[in-house]
Amino acid sequence: MRGDPWMNGPVWALGAMSGTSLDGVDAAMVLTDGHQVLEFGPHAYRPYSPAEQAVLRAALGRWPGEGVEAAAEVVETAHAELLARFEGAQIVGFHGQTLAHEPGGRGTHQAGNGGLLADVLGLPVVWDFRTADVTLGGQGAPLAPFYHFALAKKIGATRPLAFLNLGGVGNLTWIDPTQPGPEAEGALLAFDTGPANAPLNDLIRARTGRDCDEGGEVAAKGRVKKPLLDRFLSHPYFLKIPPKSLDRDAFAELVQAAKKLDTASAAATLTAAAVSAVVKGAEHFPRPVSRLLVTGGGRHNPVMMKGLARRLSCPVEPVEAVGLNGDMLEAQAFAFLAVRVAKGLPTSCRTTTGVAANVGGGQISRPSALV
Ligand SMILES: Nc1ncnc2c1ncn2[C@@H]1O[C@H](COP(=O)(O)OP(=O)(O)OP(=O)(O)O)[C@@H](O)[C@H]1O
Ligand SMILES: CC(=O)N[C@H]1[C@@H]2OC[C@@H](O2)[C@@H](O)[C@@H]1O[C@H](C)C(=O)O
User: Fold this and answer.
1) 368: annotated binding-site residue?
2) Half-sphere exposure (CA, 13 Å, Cβ side) for 297?
C-alpha cells in the first residue's frame, strides 16, 4: 500500500530465523530500504528447550496435515516470545522452521503461521518466503544470496567474493559486487553445498548427549575414514549443476554409515565431509574469489575452518573479519527480504534458486485490527 512506511524510505525491519540445526531462534533488526543495509540494530537469541526440540525433531520430514500442529505451536510461541522483546520494528520477516523440503516434489514446508504472529505483535509480518519460488519451478532455497549481495556492497567489495553459511546444511553464494543489483546477469551464483553441521550434531547427540562437537574437539581426535568420505563424495548431488538445494536429512545414509565408526573417527569423517562438500561446491564458481567469508555456527569449529583454509586457494575468514555478525546474518537476511517482498522486489532469480523468472516470494499478513 502507498501509505506503508517502507514505500517512502528505509525502515527498521526485524527478521527471525529458526535454522535446520533446531537449536533455537535468532532475531535481528536492520535499517534497510530493501536495496542497501544502512544500519544493524539489536539482536537476540531464544533457544528451544529440550522438550521443544524433541517436538520439532519428531516433526521433521512432515507436511501440513500430517500432524505438525504441535511443532507449529512451538515455533509460533518461541517467536512470539522473542520478537515481543524488540522495540521500534516497522515490519517483521518470519522464516519459520523448515520441516520438509522437496522442490520438484511435494514442495517446501516451513512450520509457523505468520498471520498469528502479526496479530500477537501488532505488526505486518512477511512469511512463507519459499513457496512462490518452488511453485514457479525454483529450488526455494537458498534465499540469503540477495542479502549477501547487499552486504558485499556494504563492505565495499570490488572483486568477486563468496559467502559460505555453515549451518545444519551448508550454502555458498558467489558474488560479483561490480554488478548493479543482485538480479543482474552474472551478479550471483548460489546453492546448497551439502550437509554441514546437522549430521555431526546428530552423531554427537546420539553418542554423548551434547548438542554439537564444541570447538571440533571430538573430530580433532579422530581419523578421517577415506572410503566413507569417497562414498559420500560420489553422491549424485555433487554432479548436479547449480542452483540446487537440499533437505536437512538428504544424506541420511552417510550418518548411518558413520555410526559404525568410533565417535572420534565418525566426527572427523563427517567434518571432512562438510568441508569436502564446500570444496566441491567452489568448483562451480564462475570465476575465482578474492576471499571466502564464513557465517553460521560452523565458523566456530576450528577443524572445519582449518580444513577449508587448507583446501581452498583463497583466504577463508569468519564474516567478523569484515565487521559482520555471523550468528545473526540469516535473521538479518529475512528482515531485509521482508522489506523487498513488501515493496514488490524480487528475492530470488535464476542463478540463486533456478527459478525461471525473478520472484518476490512471501506473503504479507497485517494485524487483524489494521485490515
Ligand atoms: N563453538 C562451536 N563449536 C563447534 N560447532 C559449533 C559451535 N557453535 C555452533 N556450532 C555449530 O553450529 C550449529 C548452529 O549453526 P547455525 O545457527 O548457523 O545453524 P542453523 O541456522 O540452525 O542452520 P541453517 O543455516 O542450516 O538453517 C550448531 O548446531 C553447531 O553444530
Ligand atoms: C529449505 C531451507 O530451509 N533451507 C535452508 C537450509 O539451511 C541452510 C541451507 O539449507 C539454505 O538453503 C536454507 O537457509 C538459508 C537461510 C537460505 O535460504 O539462504
Assistant:
1) no
2) 22
In which band, very low, low, confident or very high, does the pLDDT at 254 lie, cut at 50, 70 and 90?
Answer: confident
Instruction: Please write the tens of the pLDDT for every residue from 71-126.
Output: 999 999 999 999 999 999 999 999 999 999 999 999 999 999 999 999 999 999 99
**Residue 291 belongs to a domain with what CATH number?**
3.30.420.40
| Domain-terminating residue out of 285, 302, 322 | 322
Ligand nearest to the CA of 193: 2
Provide the domain count of the chain: 2
168 and 97 Cβ atoms separated by less than 8 Å: no
Coil vs helix vs strand at 198: helix
**Nearest residue CA, atom 12 of ligand 2?**
142
Give the C-alpha separation, 228 to 64, whole Å.
35
Is 19 among the annotated ligand-binding positions? yes
129-177 residue pLDDT tens: 999 999 999 999 999 999 999 999 999 999 999 999 999 999 999 999 9
Contact 341, 180 (CB under 8 A): no
Ligand 2 contact, 192 CB (< 6 A): yes
User: What does the pLDDT average to over 7-21?
Assistant: 96
pTM: 0.97
Q: Which three cell numbers stand for residue 293?
A: 567469508
How far is ligand 1, taken at its centre, from the CA of residue 80, in Å? 22
pLDDT value for 370: 55
Residue 151 lies in a domain: no
Q: Has 21 been labeled as part of a binding site?
A: yes
Cβ–ligand 2 contact at 21 (below 6 Å): no
CB distance 245 to ligand 2 below 6 Å: yes
Name which residue sits closest to atom 11 of ligand 2, judged by CA: 142
